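User: I'm curious what two different proteins look like when written out as structure tokens. Can you demonstrate?

Assistant: Sure. I'll show them one after the other, since each token string lines up with its own sequence. Here's the first protein:
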Amino acid sequence: MNTDIKRAVILGGGISGKAAQRLCRALGIDSVILNDGEAEELPPCDLGIASPGVHPLRSKLYQLAQRSRVPMTSEMCFGFHHLGIPCAAVTGTNGKTTTTELATSLLCALDVKAVACGNIGRPVADVAAEVLEAGQKLYDAAVIEVSSFQLELAEGFAPDAAVLLNLASDHEDRYRGGFAEYASVKRRIFDHVKRPLYGLSMPDECVRRVTVNMDTVHIDGAPFLALAETRLGAPHNRENLAAALELVLRLVPAPDVIKLAAAVRAFKPGAHRIEVVGEVDGVTYINDSKGTNPAAVIAAVNSLAGPIVILLGGLGKGMDFTPLAGLAPRLRAAVIYGEARDIIGEVMRGAGVPTFDAGTDFARAFELARARALPGDTVLLSPACASMDMFKNYEERGNSFRSLVKQIEVEK
């Protein structure tokens, strides 16, 4: 990246934008944050830094920056160029956060002081600024969760190792080329990667040290640990485990396998990911609010046993919901709500699933699901959608579901 930058314009004043401005201050770069509607012209600058929430097809400010021909980068890439430590990067439609958290946890267990950042919540620029402000090394490595939004402007992003977990319909409203363009953007994570890859559909470029069969994890062909000893035995989490181990082995080629195995056994996936919230009257309530696309919902349903009453809905992001029809044999009923409820309802009814419309009332959606569940069933919040039509984020949606479950537990 050009080291002669004197002034930057930051597009978007959210968490990422504020982190980019913090890093600018630490670097002695004059900066201004702009949001859509705040400027008719782009101020003179040497660099434009885009927050991931700035929509390239809808933001007039973003389009103005593009027309101005000012060099552009993402907040994630801006931060990366100033980290100065080994980095592992994780992308994919689903599983990014679990893989990032797991890889970070495993590195720390091996006495590598690692920090998780990026799309996981803490911006990369914030970590870089923290280190610069401290004037000393604070971390040995970073594990960066990377969204497609952050890869749109990622020239020179060169992690030491990278994984692309999977690809499925998501965020297609952001790309004129639909799914094909979305997938192409995701694959940019490998453009400048420094070390051998672990990725989707890239067997010629991958030397995989980790394999997972139905019940055992192997490293370099030797048994490492049994899946039954971990909380990662579901099919989707096996993929996440293998990917996290591959990343760790790229950064620590000869780890203490006893420490590594103990750390895998101790790891617990985070909240809002197929999280058992409670059981009332023989019905299990599971919060999978992070299931924000159809592929994630399918993975959640396939990890569970017994009939399911599912809550589906939210912001549709231009996704293809037809794969949800294949879940019909597992579903006792579907309750739909939010902005995308009509299109999801059409898919569910077409598959013969009893479907109930709660409008934009999430509490009503919960009550409709509860009323249709029988002892032995699961009520599953796995919405297949983003949350921002009705909630601040997926955490708020999941916490709302938790509160409703706790409320009926108290009533009992």
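Here's a second, unrelated protein for contrast:
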Amino acid sequence: MIIDSHQHYWKYSPETHGWISDDMKVLKRDFMPDNFLSVIDEHKIEGTVVVQADQSEEETEFLLSLAKQFPFIKGVVGWVDLKHPELSNKLKGFSQNKILKGFRHIVQAEAPGFLKDPKFVAGVKALGEAGFTYDLLIYHHQLAEALDFAGKTTNVKIVVDHIAKPSIRTGEKTHWELNMAALATFPNIYCKLSGMVTEAKWNDWTYEDIEPFIDEVFESFGADRVMYGSDWPVCLLAGSYNDQFSVVKKYISRLSEDEKRKVLGENAKRFYNL
């Protein structure tokens, strides 16, 4: 049983997807569930969690509409303005749709101090009160700020996307690993084993470049709080779906069968209540 806990869909437009730069030309097209069916068949994927790529409520509704059409989408992580004065009412409305599991904000694009904003922190805490999860998308240099944030949001199930985007391309991990270990001391925080190949050298990475970073993830979070995610189609910047999945499968081959099941699906099902 395999759950891919992190993927995206979009109908490409330069205005909406301005983050897709010229060196990301492979992503400048539509990516829809139909394009993913062959991957599901090849890898025997039972279900996926689709995550927002655009910061709008229209994006949330778009993903929910796809989930209605494609049963393999087991959960949606959408977007809502977490500082909105009517957030509680918005969450009440969203809670009517059981396929909507949580929300994400693209914090990696925000200025320093964003995670310390009392209004944003209150919004994330409201997610926990409403039964939603939160995906934390940050770069490694934002981890110290994330620690302060984590201490204020212990009532929310939080998952760190893309192992907090360490500098795999340079191999530097000292500050990243220390902060990740500290973040993992909060039992409500999980980590996605995703987005790693795109933090390496896109056209010249090896398994050995990534392995030390996965070591630290498992040492800090353990097999009970780590979940597999492909970050498809963004992963295509650095390789095929199979290329990135092979890294994870090679690493977890050393784990017990029970631990493999947790990483490849059971942890995601438990975290997102799939």
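A detail about the second structure: The mean pLDDT is 96.
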